[in-house]
Design brief:
88 residues, mainly alpha, Non-ribosomal Peptide Synthetase Peptidyl Carrier Protein, Chain A, 52% helix, 0% strand, globular, Acyl carrier protein, PP-bd_ACP
């Protein structure tokens, strides 16, 4: 995956997160280092399910339930890296 692709994926993942958790966290304010599950109160278990659905629809892949774990959802960067691996 190239740097441009990584940045594009990071941006698109940030947009998906903003769509799910609301405008308090704009996609531009989310960086690769932004911590997710457990750190953003808006990203509770229901929002996580919605985020997975949005990512699957937006990127055209199906997330395996074994991949739904704290490591993948640790940060925006780890989630973007996972998504990039699914579409790359």
């Amino acid at each position: 995956m190239t740097i441009d692709t990584t940045e594009a994926t990071l941006d698109r993942v940030g947009e998906a997160i903003t769509e799910v958790i609301g405008p308090d966290h704009s996609a531009g304010s989310l960086t690769a280092a932004t911590l997710l599950f457990g750190s953003l109160p808006e990203l509770d278990s229901l929002a996580l399910v919605e985020l997975i659905t949005v990512l699957e629809d937006r990127f055209g892949f199906e997330m395996d339930e074994d991949d739904i774990n704290a490591e993948v959802f640790e940060s925006v960067g780890s989630l973007a890296e996972y998504v990039g691996g699914q579409i790359g």
